[in-house]
Design a protein that fits this description.
The protein is α/β, with parallel strands linked by helices. Helices cover 42% and strands 23% of the residues. The protein has seven helices and ten strands. The strands form three sheets. It has a six-stranded mixed β-sheet with strand order 7-6-5-8-9-10. A two-stranded antiparallel ribbon has the order 1-4. The chain has a two-stranded antiparallel sheet with strand order 2-3. Helix 1 runs antiparallel to helix 2 and helix 2 packs across helix 3. The longest helix has 18 residues, at 46-63.
Amino acid sequence: MTTEQKIATGLLQIGAVFLRPDEPFLWASGIESPIYCDNRLTLTAPDVRNLIENEMARVIGTEFPDCDKLMGTSTAGIAHAAITAHIMGLPMGYVRGSSKSHGRNNRIEGRLDPGDKVVVVEDLISTGGSSIEVVDALRDAGADVLGVISIFTYGTKRADDAFAAAGVRKVSLCSADTLINVAVASDYISEAQGVDVLRFLKEL
């Protein structure tokens, strides 16, 4: 079993991924989807969490060897950025959804200097909109954003187009394709349901 398949299995076993082809979930973007991923649940599952964070550290070291700082997305990416940064011995910070209305009115928390080579840590990528907003904020602050890494990606065309338009590289530890294949193999959903979910995602 590959590491990606192990992550997919772990996400399914702890109930972090919900598959309801007949009763769609409402995403924050307003899209009704037969699949929903809640990677916050990995934080309370040490075995799965350790698998994910160690793999994230390995992939960042391989795919973004020049990275000198991790920046988490608010709020779901913050803990994963912190744990992975600890493993890698790197500094980290995070980017708020909007600037604070008090104190120094920060949107970016943690020290960020112009020219810092940053990798953004996301829990998941759906349409890509929120990830690109974070990248834009970091670029505006002078960071050199090397890319975005996520635990899971739905693999939508919208996300592919958004990242391509922004000139941002994205890497995910687990894809919807792999997760659905594991879900079908473990009788979590039927093969027909798996086909329907993947068709839905490919058409987004």
